[in-house]
Amino acid sequence: MKKIRLIIIFSALVLPSCMNEPAQQPNTYKGNFEALWQIINTKYCYLDYKHINWDSIHSVYSSRVDTVKSNFSFFDLMGSMLGELKDGHVNLYSDFNRSRYWKWFQDYPANFSNLLINNNRYLGTNYLMAGGFDYAKINNGTIGYIYYDDFSDAFSDTNISYIMNYFSGCKGLIIDVRNNGGGSLDYSKQLASYFFKVETVTGYMRHKTGDGHSDFSAAVEIKTPACKNIQWQRPVAVLTNRMAYSATNDFVNRMKQAPNVIIVGDRTGGGGGLPLSSELPNGWLVRFSSSPMYDSAMQNTEWGIDPDVRDSIKVADQAKGIDTIIERAIILLK
Amino acid sequence: MQTNRCQTHEMKKIRITLILLVLSFVVSAQNNTDEKKYPLTSNTNSFNLSTLSFLDPYLSPLNYSGLGLGYSTESRRFLNEMDYKYSTLSKFRFGAGIALNPKLTSDLLYFGANYGWGIEYHLMSINGIKLQVGGLWDADFGFKNVERNINNPVNLDMATNLNLTGLASYDIILKQKTLKLKLALQTPLFGFMFVPRAGASYFEMFELGNLTDALHFSSIHNKRGIDGKLSIDVPFNHSVWSFGLKMNELRYSANDLVFNRSEFSLLVGTTFDITSFAGRKNKAPKNFISPNDY
Q1: Is A287 close to B150, i.e. CB distance below 8 A?
Q2: Count of structural domains within chain A
Q3: How far apart are CA A275 and CA A45, in angstroms?
Q4: Rounded to an integer, what distance in angstroms lies between the CA atom of residue A258 and that of residue A256?
Q5: What is the spatial distance between Cα B130 and Cα A266, in angstroms, rounded to a whole number?
Q6: Contact residues on chain B for A210, CB-CB shorter than 8 A
Q7: Is B274 within 8 Å of B41 (Cβ atoms)?
Q8: ipTM surpasses 0.90
Q9: CATH code at position B158
Q10: In terms of pTM, does the model score above 0.80?
Q11: By the number of CB atoms within 10 A of the CB, which of A182, A324, B62, B232 ranks highest?
């Protein structure tokens, strides 16, 4: 009898425990608003860091939801609410639109022009292309210049090997990642690895572990390895502007720790939070920063990374077809 | 003298008869001990069409539902040819499916495989119902992909469990044939499972090696399920076909996430018995022919 009693007590305690699915919001404007607000409230990683009072944002936008008359106006309202996060990694995707926050580069000088880098002084028309890289020798063949506009473009060791052999007579190398909005962190790590002599801790990452705004896991090291077969050990300048974002931000952060590397240009756009995604009851997708990344001094990289040498494109230079930032890099590499 | 001769002749006859009788007993006994038993392996291979339902909060808070196709094979064999109490059971199944969210704006692609091996004890039959119970260790692997997700497009279902299994079978005797009705049940008892934290990306887990809180002990406190199959074996002239219904309901929880996987299937397959001969000590009897011998 004792055994049976124990089994009954054990079953009563264990079986009903913690296995209920969380309640889902109904597919109404109010329900979708609450679902979106809750996703950000529990999963977005920068509410405390950015001093955002998300509860008060609920109050403000909740009252406006009652006035919504169509999916379009509801989408705009939700997009505006997400805009309060001031985060380029936060988007709402519907079948008819994608909300976005672009002030991280729109409010700043462009410091980049495709026309400039494609004139004969730099890439010209006969530049080489390999693995997403456009490259050419500039400054009378003394400097290697690589333009990489998307960290989603794959490349291989073989691509890099050919490029570095091509630049073997150059005194220095410019890697221009301006207007590169990001892509894969794997490519960021791979590209940086050609400029490190030893594996180096170049940053840290954490992720949300609970519903609290500052519930984070312990920081885990982000290491940049040194490529065993290919190494560039001459001076390197990495060119940046505000549109260097996300994986490009990560690349710049890594390269800041590399020997013989100098960062030239404007502060990067940031995007230090690795984004994840979730869904609303109406089927819309929301992307949000979930895992904050830090530099090697455990400083957040969400707002961007300062260059070692700040410079911007002068209007007078641009009129003459000169990219002030490239010219500054050439001088620094000499 | 005549009488004595006759008596001696009679005695000889009796003696010969006795010797022949003894010899025939010995031969018969020898025949019985030499009659080797060949334990057969009963195989059931079946295909299934399923309705699927997934709740995977790592991928989405919404329920995804859809259709799937699968193949499964199941083998049963007595552990020992002299003992009809224990039999081994091995299972393998593979399935794939596609499911959609309630508003049909996103799809989830699913691939799953499961291998299990166990032993069952044959209980006494009650009113013609044969009962077996046992334990089965299994390894479960599932791959779920919501392609439109960003940095969390995939979640892996990886688990290993010790399961409680049971089988009830009943022979339905008709005029021409005997049908076999079977109900098989399986439920997880304890094991280990991989469940990532909701906020942890696969980049952090597998690129940076941070697998903290990704591996969990599971038991009925955080993992419950029932895998039930009701089938009927119908013999035809040269084959036995198996038709059935299958229900697989699994719910588990870790890292404050509750997962659910439901599958309801229609099954069709074949059942057959096989044995194998190989090696010096396990040669085929002479009335078996093999191309290796000719």
Answers
A1: yes
A2: 1
A3: 10
A4: 6
A5: 79
A6: 256
A7: yes
A8: no
A9: 2.40.128.100
A10: yes
A11: B62
Q: Total structural domains in chain B?
A: 2
Establish if A7 belongs to a structural domain: no
Helix, strand or coil, per DSSP, at residue A212 = coil
Which residues in chain B are contacts of A95 at CB distance < 8 A? Answer: 105
CB A317 within 8 A of CB A325: no
**Domain range for B160:** 39-278
Q: At residue B209, does pLDDT exceed 60? A: yes
In this structure, the answer to whether residues B104 and B218 fall within a common structural domain is yes
Residue written as token pair 């050439």 = A330
Q: What is the mean pLDDT of chain B?
A: 90
In a domain, B291, yes or no: no
Give the pLDDT confidence of A270-319 residue by residue, as tens digits. 999 999 999 999 999 999 999 999 999 999 999 999 999 999 999 999 99
User: What is the number of alpha carbons within 13 Å of residue B179 lying toward its C-beta?
Assistant: 12
Distance CA A258, CA A304 (A): 18
- Write the pLDDT tens digit of every residue in A27-77: 999 999 999 999 999 999 999 999 999 999 999 999 999 999 999 999 999
Please state, for a pLDDT cut of 90, what percent of chain A lies above it.
93
Res A5 pLDDT > 90: no
Which tokens in the block code for residue B158? 């990886």
**B194 and B232 housed in the same domain:** yes
Tell me, what DSSP letter sits at residue A303? T
The contact set of A with B (CB < 8 A) is 14-15, 17-22, 24, 27, 35, 39, 43, 45, 93, 95, 185-186, 205, 207-210, 217-218, 220-222, 274-279, 281-285, 287, 290-291
How much of chain B, in percent, has pLDDT values that exceed 70?
A: 88
Say which amino acid occupies B205.
M
Q: Could you give the CA distance from residue A81 to residue A59 in angstroms, rounded to a whole number? A: 11
- For B292, phi and psi rounded to 5 degrees? -65, -25
pLDDT digit string, tens, across residues B231-281: 999 999 999 999 999 999 999 999 999 999 999 999 999 999 998 888 888
Tokens linked to B271: 């059942």
Burial B106-145 (b: 16+ CB within 10 A, else e): bbbbbebebebebebebeeeeeeebebebbbebebbbebe
Verify that B246 and B187 share a domain, yes or no: yes
Over residues A101-117, mean pLDDT = 94
* A89 within domain boundaries: no
Based on its alpha-carbon atoms, the radius of gyration of chain A, rounded to whole angstroms, reads 24
Rounded-to-integer distance, Cα A89 and Cα A184, Å: 14
User: Both tokens of residue B124?
Assistant: 């006494």
